[in-house]
Write a structure and sequence with these properties.
about 300 residues; alpha+beta; 4-stranded antiparallel β-sheet; about 70% helix
Length: about 300
């Protein structure tokens, strides 16, 4: 306990010896971890957004107005037997018009139809694995019965609609964010290590005479190194706590406004996820502080 008190006292005194360098180290760690934390939260939001859109991916296979119900049932039974298909339902022309009417706010559009119904009936397919939408759509397109009763027999593919293109674009954006975020995280960690290394180097130089005396009186290597390791850890801890506080403030004030302005998108991040991110940031900060201090001591403190 006495050694811990000595380490703590010496590390705190290091703040005043090199105040500007110490503040630079803390600010660098703070900004680095803040950006990393924001990227982690944004990454979770993007993943949730992609998942919410992906779960809404369905296949709509339009059928001709003169299609026989027996042929429609035959196609639906075939689709139900496909792997990765969760459910199959049928939407009549009347139901399609009603759904369209409920989805628009301008009733004049329906009135202009003069009682006509231009919307086709459709076979609607929900998938257990949205990633397999292209495979299922291809199987439906290759079904001989469906080729005969589809809305456009001359171009069967145009009678089958699904939103895979949107999901693919979202996945591309997600991958770009991941790659850019990973590169940025590596760069920020490197910068933080450099600042910690420089801070501990200056602390070692400021105490070089004291260290020489401690060597002469037989102080152990661990006793000499302890204050410098603790100093680096304290810098990192302060920086990481500041980053956590700022992210929590963003969570409380900025993110709700973003959700209110973009209500059609899902930005929900659970409280547990935030806690895990906070723990990861504090842990990463301590690791950065200890590694930076250890590297500096290995290079400049020959004990």
């Amino acid at each position: 306990m006495s050694s811990f008190g000595y380490f703590l006292r010496e590390s705190l005194q290091g703040f005043t010896r090199n105040l500007s360098t110490t503040l630079g180290s803390i600010i660098t760690i703070f900004l680095s971890l803040l950006i990393i934390g924001v990227f982690l939260v944004a990454g979770v939001m993007v993943e949730n957004l992609v998942s919410s859109v992906e779960n809404e991916v369905t296949i709509t296979a339009y059928v001709a107005d003169d299609a026989q119900q027996s042929d429609i049932d035959r196609v639906m039974d075939s689709v139900r037997g496909m792997s990765d298909v969760q459910s199959v339902s049928f939407t009549t022309k009347e139901q399609a018009l009603e759904n369209f009417s409920n989805s628009i706010s301008n009733a004049e559009i329906i009135e202009q139809l003069d009682g006509q119904n231009p919307l086709p009936a459709s076979i609607d397919v929900e998938l257990s694995d949205p990633q397999m939408v292209e495979s299922v759509a291809s199987q439906i397109q290759g079904n001989s019965t469906y080729q005969r009763i589809c809305e456009d027999p001359e171009n069967v593919g145009d009678s089958i609609k699904y939103g895979q293109a949107t999901v693919e674009r979202l996945f591309q954006v997600t991958n770009y964010v991941r790659y850019i975020g990973l590169a940025l995280i590596i760069l920020l960690i490197f910068i933080a290590l450099v600042f910690i290394n420089n801070t501990i180097r200056l602390a070692i130089l400021a105490r070089r005479k004291e260290i020489a005396i401690m060597r002469l009186v037989g102080a152990s290597n661990g006793f000499i190194r302890g204050p410098f390791l603790m100093e680096g850890a304290i810098h990192a801890l302060i920086g990481s706590v500041l980053a956590v506080v700022i992210i929590q403030l963003l969570r409380m004030f900025a993110i709700p406004r973003l959700q209110d302005s973009l209500q059609f998108l899902s930005f929900d991040v659970t409280g547990t996820t935030y806690v895990l991110i906070y723990v990861a940031l504090v842990g990463a900060g301590l690791i950065i502080g200890l590694i930076g201090s250890a590297l500096a001591m290995r290079r400049y403190l020959k004990v």
